[in-house]
Amino acid sequence: MKNRWVIVVIVWLIPSSIFGQLKLVDSLENILKNTVNQKSRVDLLNQLSLVYLTYHPKKGLAYSEESLSLAKSNQYTQGIIVALNRIGESEFRLSNYAKAVDYVTQSLKLAEQNNDSINLALAYRVLGMIYTFGLKQNDLALEYLLYAYQIFAKLKDEQKLASIYGNITWVYANMNKNLVVADSMARQGIKLATSLGDKRLLSYNYNSLALILLQERKLDSAIWYIDASDKNAMLMNDQAVMSYNSTIKGNAFIYKKEYQKAIEIFEKAKKTSRELNLAEVLKDATAGLVKCYDALGKYELAYQNYKLNTQLNDSTLNWATTQKILLTKLTFEEEKQKAKIAELENENSRSKKEINIFILFFVTILISLITVIILITRNNRNREHTNLGLQKKNDEIAVQNIKLEEANSIKDKFLSIIGHDLRSPLNSLNGLLGMVTKGEVTEKEFQRFAPQLQQHVMGVSETLENLLQWSRSQMEGWNYNETTFNIFSSIRKTIQLFDEPTKEKKITVVNEVPENEMIRGDQNQIELICRNLIHNSVKFTPEGGVISIASKHSGEFLDLIIKDTGIGMSPAQVARLFQKKTEVTYGTKGERGTGLGLILVKEMIENHNGKIVVNSDSGKGTTFIVSLKAHGLPSKTNAPQ
Hints:
By secondary structure, this protein is α+β, with helices and mostly antiparallel strands. The chain contains 22 helices and nine strands.
């Protein structure tokens, strides 16, 4: 299997040129030497036979015959079908038309039995070529080629369509009919071959279009397209196409009465067609030379070519008769085989009828049993399906109940915060301001209450901000606005928010994050994380304590480390820290905490696919480690474990 893929890769990668062809042959033959798998060897041999087809058909025939033998011994049907077709096309190139028809017909029948549309169409195409160029039966050739066209069109195979366009239009041009349709098809073939970058198919379709234009006496256009066909055929070393091109170009110059140019072309065609054993091209070349020399008054040369043309016609006639006799014999043998098969079938039909009656009775009983079994099975399946449906609904209801309980818990928490944590400080603030307004509090007394008042205001502000952010986080479609920003600056700004409480408690806050430290994420969310964690440390750190904020890279993640020398927590408190049913807590100066800030911190970190770790000892302080991606989009698969 591995080598079969290598074949495909080599065929597509090597340039469409003579050098490319030689390189392709060398590559395929080298692979063949090292290939042990028998089916892969069959595919390689078939590929080599195709490469040699246009310029060395005898060698191509040898490869395809070896392929057929190997495919049969390994019962490799696909290889047999392709090998038969390759042998047929090689025999066609060698002008052994009866053999060619025999092999291609075998390939066609085998492809038909195996529902192999591609190889069925390829067999029709080769038969069409044999009857076009060899047996000169254009009507039958057109019938086969149209069969192939219908299959390729249904499969939407552009390469095969480009090829068949060239074959069909050549037949139309030879018959000198449907030239408008032929012209359109040839141009479609050129367009497809150009888009595929296939030089061989371009040469075929340019050749056909040139013959059409010659029939229409558009001589300059015909010559231009012949030159284009030659250019592409030369790149593919397709000597046969160039030989046929010579006869078309020569006749174009005859119509233009440029006899000397025509003579040069026909003389070259004579030489090439002898080398390639192309009798039809040799006949056309000698016939063209007769016309040219006669028009120039060179009657001796005209007569010499006339004698050669007559000999060729006689030998071709005898040879064609032999080929047709062989074809008739093949057809007769096939008909005899069919008759024998029909006789055997008639002998078996009587016994088959008796067997059929018994089979019908047995099948009737069997169907009845199967019907009963199906009904029982369907009934059981429906019952199982219904039970599964009910179980699924029950599971969904259970999940909904859990969600409702959680929603009620969140609602209760929300109302508790509004009812106590906001109302209580606001009532205190309102009472104090009322006393100030009535003059019941002196300026000195007000200054004594001011720090406590400020603490209430900050608490209310923080609680409102957390409530706002938490409410947004519960909404579907909450935006995540990702940017890259300087985390040092954000932390410095956050520390400044707590200048008053840290001065009052004489707490030292140290920003150890490098000034050029960058992080990628939602800036508002990350700043909210830092604000809540730093505020948490301020609340639970006693006078004279220290809070430090540092950063450390861990792979593609950045760890933000908020460490304090506060009162710390027990393992049980750490375990409950991020639960939505948290208890009310109080700081070292009586600062009240709702637990909402830490819940929000956890949600924001999860939005960034990050992680938070808490290390704490009672009386020794607490360390929060927040791991976020330093750069790029957040990815859950890359989150630290």
